[in-house]
Amino acid sequence: MARDTWFETVAIAQQRAKKRLPKSVYAALIAASERGQTVAENVDAFAELGFAPHVIGALEKRDLATTVMGQDISLPVVISPTGVQAVHPDGELAVARAAAARGTAMGLSSFASKPIEEVVAANPKTFFQVYWLGDRDAIAARVERARAAGAVGLIVTTDWSFSHGRDWGSPKIPEQMDLRTTVRMMPEGLVRPRWFLQWAKTMRPPNLRVPNQAGRGEPGPPFFAAYGEWMGTPPPTWADIAWLRELWGGPFMLKGVMRVDDAKQAVDAGVSAISVSNHGGNNLDGTPASIRALPAIADAVGDQIEVLLDGGVRRGSDVVKAVALGARAVMIGRAYLWGLAANGQAGVENVLDVLSGGVDSALRGLGLGSVHDLAPEHVLVPPGFARALGVPGDPTA
Ligand SMILES: Cc1cc2nc3c(=O)[nH]c(=O)nc-3n(C[C@H](O)[C@H](O)[C@H](O)COP(=O)(O)O)c2cc1C
Q: Atom 3 in ligand 1: which residue has the minimum CA distance?
C-alpha cells in the first residue's frame, strides 16, 4: 500500500473519510440518534478502562486466532453488517475481499447494495443479517436465498425503534440517484470531487436499491420502500426468533442484546450467539455503552452461547478490553466504513491491520501469549463502570 494512503489509526481514517465524502454521505455514517449520547458513550467508555503493563515477561509470539459461529478467524474482530450504500462503488464486495484477505468473517446487511451471491464468492465466511421485515414467508424466502448462496450463519437484528430525530439534523438520503438528485448534489461534488469521480468512472450512480430483499437476480426494492415495509411489520416475539432459528438450523446470532434477562431469553430461544450491542448508538439514545453491559451478560450466559460485542471499537486495545471482559470477539461498524471511504478494499485491510497490530501490542504489554488468556483481571475497571441491565434488584441496573 502506498505510504501516502496508509493510515496508522482509525481516527486518521475517519479524518480522511470526512475529507473525501460528500457531507450527506459522511453524516449518514455518523448516523446516531436524538442528542447522540449513546454513540459518544460507546467510544468514551473504552477510555475509562485501563491496563497495568509488565516491563519484563513479554512473550515472543502472540496468538490472535479464534472462532466465531463455527468460522476460524485470524483475530477476534468480525465485520458488523452495515447498510450504507454509497461510500464506495465496490461497497460490500470491497469489504468482503478485505475481510477474506485478512482472514476474518463478514456480516452482510439485508440493506446492503450487493447481492449475497457475489459477497459469498468474495468471502465464504459470510453471515447474512436479517431485519424483521414482512411476514414469515417473506423472511423464510430471504433466508433460503442466503442459505443457497452459501451464507454460513444468520444474524438477526431487532434493536431498532425508528427514532429519526437528530439535534444536528439528518442527512437527506435521496429516493434514487436520478438526474435531479445528481444536479442537487453538484455543489457537494465540487468540494468532494474524488468521491464523485470514483462513481463517474463506473458509469453507474450509487445503487439505492436493496437486492437481498428480493429473489436472486432481481434488482430489489428501493431502500425507502423496504424501510417503509419494515416500519409496517409487527415487531417479532421470542416465538418468532425461535421459529427462525429452527428454520435456519445453523449458527444463529441475535444482535443488539443489552440486558441480562434478554440474553437469557435468547438462550431459551436456541440462539448460538448474541452481540451485546446498542446498534452503534443508532437506536434508543440514552442506552449505556455496550461495553458497560458486557460483563454481566457474559457472566450470565457466556458458558452457554457465544457472546460478542459491538459498539465503539476503534483500536486494538478496545478489542483486548472487550475480550478480557467476556467477549469472544468484537464486531466493527464505523471503523471499517471509514477505511472503505478512505481507500476502498485496501482501506478496510488497513483498518484490520491497525486493529490486529493493536491487539498484538496490548497482549505483549500484558505479558500474554494469546487472546484466549485474557481475563477481567487484565483490565482496570473503575468502580461503578459496569451496568447489569435487566437484573432485578441490581443497583447498577
Ligand atoms: C451507517 C451504519 C449502518 C448500519 N446498518 C446496519 C444494518 O443494516 N444492520 C445491522 O444489523 N446493523 C447496522 N448498523 C450497526 C452496526 O452493525 C454495528 O452494530 C455498529 O456500527 C457498531 O458500532 P460502531 O460503529 O461504533 O463500531 C449500522 C451502523 C452504521 C454506523
A: 82
- State the cell numbers at 230: 419494515
> Tens of pLDDT along 299-347?
999 999 999 999 999 999 999 999 999 999 999 999 999 999 999 999 9
CA 280 / ligand 1 centre spacing (Å): 6
- What is the tens place of the pLDDT at every residue in 230-286? 999 999 999 999 999 999 999 999 999 999 999 999 999 999 999 999 999 999 999
In terms of Cβ atoms closer than 10 Å to its own Cβ (0-12, 13-18, 19+), residue 24 is middle
CB-based pocket (< 6 A), ligand 1? 28-29, 31, 42, 80-84, 109, 111, 129, 157, 255, 277, 279-280, 282, 310-313, 332-335
* 372 catalytic residue (yes or no): no
Break the chain into its structural domains and give their ranges: 10-380
Its pTM surpasses 0.90? yes
DSSP code per residue over 8-37: SSHHHHHHHHHHHS-HHHHHHHH---BT-H
Q: Does domain 10-380 have CATH number 3.30.390.30?
A: no
Catalytic residue among 54, 88, 164, 279: 279
pLDDT at 294 over 90: yes
Kindly tell me the burial class for residue 322, based on how many C-beta atoms sit within 10 Å of its own C-beta (0-12, 13-18, 19 or more).
buried
